Amino acid sequence: MFEIYRKTIDWGGRPLTLETGRIARQADGAVVATYGETTVLCTVVAAKQADPGRDFFPLTVNYQEKTYAAGKIPGGFFKREGRPSEKETLTSRLIDRPIRPLFPAEFRNDTQVICTVLSHDMENDPDVVAMVGASAALTLSGIPFFGPIGGARVGYKDGAYLLNPVPDDLADSSLDLVVAGTQDAVLMVESEAKELDEAVMLGAVMFGHQQMQPVIDAIIALAEEAAKEPWDLPEKPDNSALEAKVGELARAGLEAAYAITEKQERRAKIDAVKAAVKEALADDAEALDKVGDILKSMEKTIVRGNIIAGKPRIDGRALDQVRPIVSEVGVLPRAHGSALFTRGETQALAVTTLGTGDDEQLIDALEGSYREHFMLHYNFPPYSVGETGRVGFTGRREVGHGKLAWRALKAVLPSKESFPYTIRIVSEVTESNGSSSMATVCGSSLSMMDAGVPLVRPVSGIAMGLIKEGDKFAVLSDILGDEDHLGDMDFKVAGTEKGITSLQMDIKIAGITEEIMEKALAQASGGRAHILGEMNKALTGARTELSSNAPRIETMQINKEKIREVIGTGGKVIREIVETTGAKVDIEDDGSIKVSSSDPEAIKKALAWIEGIVAEPELGRIYDGKVVRIMDFGAFVNFIGTRDGLVHISELADHRVDKVTDIVKEGDQVKVKVLDIDDRGKVRLSMRLVNQETGEELEDTRPAKGGKNRD
User: Fold this and answer.
1) Residue 231, pLDDT score
2) Angle, alpha carbons 8-12-17 (nearest 5°)
3) Binding site for Mg(2+): residue ranges?
4) Binding site: which residues?
């Protein structure tokens, strides 16, 4: 019934198996990729015909995790998987970015790649497995695809690179990098690092590219046995006459437009040229369907030709020149920290809010649930590019750009123990003309320092571009939106003065060489240093005091056995502390306690209360106490937290006491000395010995002879 094909290789000390022919046989291509015991089903289907008049390639990649893969049942009321998680969205982008450039330009059929995690062994991340499986499915499908690609995760520990490190190794690694590419070149890089230098980062990329080659070979070997017949591509029509006519109508206008440095004015000029061309061709419906692609190609030729020829860039800058920068902090009076970072026509308003443990994000992942105390959210409203559009929807691009900035800043955060705050940054992109994600990195770094977050060092970021024509190429620093759109590479580098903290690269051509990447990294290093210098004009380090609007957090450590006493039966004690003092109290399983409030006095009272609960009485120590119960044989005094001790009638005063109430009554504030603590924890106290030590005397309220009180 099944005609199964399978290839297995040893990859990084674990078996990688690619299988086709058993599952999802009606898809154009289907591969079950298994690495260790992590299994991902990858399928690809393309429409047999493209919609007429379509001027783009409609590729969709969906990576989805099923909770049964980890032996779990989904939470929530409906008990089924819901909208994509952040991890699923980011992995979908991770797969999309290296495969998209490898489809031919004339292929415009609806194409969908779906990668479903079927099993997760908690050691091998499904993201790289899904990328490899998607590449194999595309290669087998017959759909036009100039692959295959491979992918690999690279770590760096003790001066050595690690291939596909397991979580325990990754926890101690100073690098987490995912790289994808073909046999000849690198196509995509995504990483976070702990201030590594350019040479180490470049070495990691090339190490990953080398280690993915056996995977590419395995896909090719599988395709030689199981690939379907390749699809026929539509013939390229001869548009030379139309191209010449459009050139006569538009070239001079487009060249003049790309000499305008201001974005909005330039776009208006380009739109006017395009409108004039379409008006001139209004009577030719067939020509109107083709003119968009011809104009786009002409724009690319003009911009790229000027740069390769050594002419100034669109806005007049040199290749390695960064746009003018203005950095401002403290721009919002009620925010805990804020910064407005403007670079040319790109601007980000970054706002930092500090919270407590209650504000941490609870993440339910296949690997298990955990709490995240650092969040960064990136918003790209339509007004930032002078357009109208949908508001309130978080797209894949916003999730991806936010995560890139998050990775760039994570390496310089203080430890949770030294700075026990939950940190949330929101970056509102208020203007955009290239590299708003790197503006977010710069603005967020300033915003956190403005809030008093003690970063190890400030972080800056820069986006690099590439124009490559044949053997000639030019690397561009701080690219504009048009240079990104018409160029061959978007290469983003973030880091401190000590090294790189994040690297992301996307290539629109078949790949780039080590030489180009090395030049881009070196040029980016100079750009980052320049941007850091401009940022330092606003703020060189974290403020020494938090905003008066931010909560204060104090921490203390108690014996784990005392946790139940602080919480109380049904939470009675901790609720009383919170309601009485007004401070928030968070208790961890290890006995660490965080007390937070905007009122320092509330924190002080709550800490003293907790200290009283958990403190152990010391023999011979004198305590302030309160009489809570009177008995014939003595008085019970609450002297430390909820702890009571007995003052026997003989220990109330230096003289004979006939009746306890002659000396004390309930509610009296007294001083007591600890005499003894027995094996059951019962405490004997003395007021008499305190009187001897301090020279104080209690008023003798016993009746005088004859029934009258002594005055």
Assistant:
1) 94
2) 20
3) 484, 490
4) 484, 490
